[in-house]
Design brief:
The structure is a single chain. The protein is mainly β. It folds into two domains: 106 residues, Copper binding periplasmic protein CusF (OB fold (Dihydrolipoamide Acetyltransferase, E2P), Beta Barrel); 106 residues, OB fold (Dihydrolipoamide Acetyltransferase, E2P). It is built from two helices and 13 strands; from the N terminus they run αββββββαβββββββ. The strands form two sheets. The chain has a five-stranded mixed barrel. A five-stranded mixed β-barrel has the order 7-8-9-13-12. It is globular. About 11% of the residues have low confidence.
Length: 247
Amino acid sequence: MKRISVYTVVVFILLLLFSACRKSDSDFVSTEPVVYNYEIMEGVVTRVRSGTGQSILDFIEMDATKRLFTAKWRIRLSETGEIWYFQNSSLKLGSKESLKNGQIVKIYVTEILESYPGKATAIKIFILEEDPVTLKEPLSNRYPAQFEGVFEEIVTETTFEDKYGKTTEEYYLFNGNEIGEASKSMKVRFYFPEHAIIWRKVGDSYELASIEDVKIGKRFRILTLTHPITRIDEAGPWTVIEAVILD
């Protein structure tokens, strides 16, 4: 009887110690969420979707070198999916409201559908870097831009036409250099989606600008989607992720 009582006391003390060491889920400290049976994609959030639709964000994946943005995805969060972010060196459980355009994220995917843009279901979204607006710094200060040069003309082209009418897009004709090991002069077309991030360089700092500030004759640095499909026609149109007005 005495042995049983001593054993019971020891177990009770161990349980108390274990409970004291545990943290709540929202304060769990780690460098990575724990996920099993997944594929990982890392890249930039280009659009946080509003409304009640299944897709919560548009996302452009980086290649293995983390120097080129190579594939476009539309991401939905599973019913049990979670969004995590860092706060004071601790990993916190967030929500859709934690997502912002321009964030660098790691996405844990369990289901991928073949389409363009690609569609995938995420069980975890891990925010690696805050958005450029919060950081007050363009993405292209940390990730290589592809082009630098001057916009020469704005043109309107028909992108789709049927018996019900036609769809047109505005393209910006650009004359400048492709940045890289083999830098070369190019004339290309750029397309600015509504969620493109536009900056203006002011001295040594940057301020947010808008599409109205994209004017002919201005010099720009361009970060864009580098998808293999666009490489078939180097003239574009290339989709702008971020543009920085340099003068």
